[in-house]
Amino acid sequence: MASERRTQSLSLARVWVRSNIITTVLIVFILLSLLLHALTIGALIRVRGTLQRQLDISSQQLAQVRQQKVRYDFPVDQTFSIDTTIAISETVTVPINISVPIKETVTLPIDTPLGPVPITVPLDMTVPITDTIEVPIYRQLPFKADIPIQTDIPIDIDLSQPPLGDILQQFQDALQDLRNRL
Question: Average pLDDT, whole number, for the chain?
Answer without folding.
Answer: 87
